[in-house]
What does this fold into?
Amino acid sequence: MAQRERKTTSAVTILDVARHAGVSPMTASRVINGNPRVAAELRERVRASVRELGYRPNLAGRSLRTAGSARVGVLYSNPSAAYLNELMLGILEQSSASGVQVLVERCGDIRSQRAATRRLVEAGVDGVIVPPPLCDSRPTIRDLDERGIPVVAVASGAPLPGVTSVRIDDYQGARAMTRYLLELGHTRIGFIQGDPKHTPAQLRTAAFVDTMAEAGLKATSNLLAEGMFTYRSGLAAAERLLKLKRRPTAVFCSNDDMAAATMAVAHGMGLRIPGQLTVVGFDDTPVATTLWPELTTIHQPVTAMGRAAVTLVLELIRERRQGRTPPPTDRVMAYTLVKRQSSAAPG
It folds into this structure.
C-alpha cells in the first residue's frame, strides 16, 4: 500500500518515463500511444518503466489526439500588451478554425519558464508556440525539444538551429525606415533600442547603424538610447535624447510602445510633431493609430504571424504522430512601411 501511494501518477510525466527507460521522449510517446515502429526491446523497457513509475497518460490529451485534434501551448513573457493581443488574436482565430485547444502560460525568468513548461507538458500539450522574447530562450526551447514537443518560434530575428519559425526580416525593415528618414532630409536621427537580449532588437539597431554609415553619417553613442520595448523605458530614453543640447530632428523607436512614450515626452516639452520632431516606430500595433498624430511605423503582420504559427505547429504535430521528424521551416512574412502623420521633413 505504501508503495502504491509513493507512485501516485499525477506528477509523473512522459519525460520521467523516457529518462527511467533510457530512451528519447519521442520513443516513449510512440510506445505509450501504440505506434508499432519501435523495436521490441525498447518497447518492453518503456512498458516496464510505465508500470514501475505508475505513469498514466493524460486522458483529456489522449481523447483529443484520438479525435485527430490537438492541444497547443503558448508560453509568453512579452512586455508589450498591444503586440501580445494582436498575436493571440491570430492564434485563437486559427485554433478555433482548426479545432485546436489553446493553453496559455505566463512566465518570466528561467526558473518560471521551466515551471510553465512542465505545467504544459502535464496538461498534455502536443506542441508549443513561443512568442518573443522567449523565442530566443535556448534553455526553454531545448527543454521542450527534450520532452519530444515540437516548437514554433514567433518573431525571432535569428531562429535557433533546428527550430521552426515565423518572422519578418527585421534588419531590412529597419533599413527601410532609416532610409525613409534620410530621404526626408533628416541627418541627426536618434534611435531608441529594444531589449538587447532579443534578436530583432539587435538586428534593428544594426540596420540603423549600418544605413546611417552608408549615408556617410555616424550613429554616435549620444544618439543611441537604451530601451526595453516598454512604454516606461521609452519615457526615460526619450527624455535623454530630447534634452540634448543639439537634440535630434527625428527619433526612430524600436517598437510602437516606445514611440508612444517619445511622443508623450515631446508633447510635454511643447514640441510640435512632426513640425519640430519626427517620431517613427516599428510593429504597427493598434497603439499606432490611437496616437496624435498617428504614427509612421513598420507594419509587422502580427495577427497573420499568429495564424501561421498555429498552422506550422499543427504540421509538426501531424508529422511526429506519423513517426517522422520534419526539417525546420523558416517562414519569412512581408513587412510594410506605413507612412502617417508623425513624420515630415526637418522643420
